[in-house]
Amino acid sequence: MKYVVLGASAAGINGVGQLRALDSNAQITLISKDDKIYSRCILHHYMEGIRDVKKLEFVEDNFIEENKIEWIKGIGAASLNVREKEVVLEDGRKVSFDKLLIATGANTFFPPIPHLREAKNAIGFRNFDDCEKIMEISKVCNNIVVMGAGLVGIDVISGLIHTGKNISLVEMKGHMLSIQLDKKAALAYEEGFKKHGVNQYYEKGIKELIVNENGEIIEIILTSGETIPCDLLIVAAGVRSNVAFLEGSGVEVDRFGLVIDELGRTNVEDIYGAGDVTGRNSIWPTAAKEGIIAASNMTGVKAEMTDFFASKSTMNFLGIPTMSLGINEPEDDSYTVVIENDDEGNYKKIIHKDGKIYGAIIQGDLSYSGILTQLIKNNIDVSKIKKSLFKIDYSDFFNMKDNFEFTYDN
User: Among 189, 369, 72, 60, which Cα is nearest to 171's?
Assistant: First the structure.
């Protein structure tokens, strides 16, 4: 059996590892534009000087050699011939396969703002090359602007605040990390970055870029009319799935990206997908798990995505640990919200409806996350719990009836 995997990040690397674990005799080829195996989630640590390139790796030494993987690095896929079962590379080479895993990830989305795409000092933050470009320019610039206050944007700022540069953050939504956090949880980070001198502009977008004769941005005009000096603009306003090479192949994509089912299968037999290329759950743990699940099914070992939440994030900016699950605000009045907080920065919030947890945020002391995981994993009907949801401890999970139904004491 000949397996080909496109992409060397979370989904692709976990995919090839699982393929080898389940099929010791298979021929496995990995194809990627990256020439390194590294975690994108901690690139800001490289910017800060906390980690070197080696410490960005998330696999053991000699992973490629020990798993007998042929790695074609530094080049991407240009097209896919489904009928011939061939991947055509950007240099014209053709690589055949019996089964294919598409884990090509995503790239930075540049909004349709005049001069943005061609500006020499406007850079995305998606891969190692982007990181090095930002580090190089930041040495000689004075005013850095980050567009987008999602996880990627905050990663960038975390990696740059040590430089002492004038840093500004521009975000269309009302607060930082609006997908993951509510206003209260986000405020802890907003105040923390403010103490580090980060200027923050919320509910405002970039209206116009002022460029010089060299095509470099020198100033930004916001939708509010305010102006910000800028000699380095980092774009972190979203991503787009890397699916252009699939055009005309017959492999289904939608407005988000590659379409897969819970087994990782596409609409074409023997072709699977995983990770950010789907454009749906762009977080590291989900991508890694999807890669493992797709690879398992490619070898005939059935596995399925059964995660309760489409959105799960953990973060630790400025020494403030936070975990978020699912929705961060109730969608209507039919949901019940319970909150507990203190003066030491600890904050817990659970959103539930008809006994089912739909969202949660824990900030500060994350020890309760274990209990919360058990409530979710075991499908506990929280409407039947008589004590406070935040007073449950592990002993409660051993209080079961003969039929293994969970019960709780007051």
Answer: 189
